[in-house]
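Input chain follows. Return C-alpha cells only.
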Amino acid sequence: MEKKILVPTNFSKQSWNALIFAMNLYKKHPCTFYLINVYQSQGFLSEAIPLGRKNSDENSEKETSEKGLDRMMKGLGFRKENPKHQFETISIQDNLINGIQDNADKLGIDLIILGAKGDSAGINVSHDNKISKISEEIEKCPVLVIPEDYELKTEKDLEIVFPSNFRIPFKQKELIPLVELSNSLGASVRVLYINTENKPLSPEQEEIKGELAKHFSDIPFAFHNLTQTTPSTGVHIFIESRECDLLALYQRKQGFFSRLFQHKRSNELNFDPRLPVLILKEYE
C-alpha cells in the first residue's frame, strides 16, 4: 500500500536532510512525498537558505516559497530516481500549524517528517520552537523528528525504545507507525517500563502489557524495567546504556509523554533526545 509522507520545509539543511532520511527509510515502499512550505508564518522561514530579497509583500512571499520548492524538486532530479517514489509540492499561505494539519487531514497523510536543527530533536516544549509546536499541536497524524546531525548506524542491530507505564490501553491503529518503522529498519522494539514507585504491576497493567505484546507479535520486541528513577532520566539512561537508535513516544494530553517534560526538581534532566523521535498520536 502506498504511503503518503508530508515533509514541511523551510529550505534549510535540516529540512533537506529529513527528506533524504525519509526517502532512505521508505526506499522499498511506494510513497508519495508532499513537500510543503507554509509562508507568512512567523519565523518559519527565518533559518532558510536565502533565495532572494525578502519583504512583506504577499506576492514576494509566494514567489520565494514556490522558487524554494522548485529548487528542491531540481535537487531531487539530480539523485538516482527510485521508481517507487513520487513527489508533489504544496505552497500555502497560512498559519504553520493550520497549514500542516489541514493538508495532513485532506491528503490522508500517514506520517509527517520534520528536520530539527543541530544534534537534538528539539521536541522539548520548553524550547518554544517550531519543531516543539508542530510535534505538540498536530493531531491524529504521527510525527517523526530527525536531528540534523544524526546518522543511522546501519552496521549494527537497530533498536527503537518505546516507554510505557501500561496504564491506558493502546489502539492498534495508534501503533501501526511504530510497527511499520520497525519493519522498515529491521529494528527491534524495546518496551521500557519506568517503575518509579518500585511496586509490582497491577492486574490492569499486566493486562495492558499482554495486549501490547499481541500488537507487537509480528515484530521483534522485548520488555525492560528500570526502578528508582524518573521517567526522563530513566529513558535517557536506557538510551545511552544500550546505544539505542530511535525513540518512540505515545502522546496523550495527560500521561507519560507529558511527564517527560516536567521539571519539578532542579536536578531533573532536561529531556531533549539526540536521536530520531517518532511521536505517536492518540485517536479518540
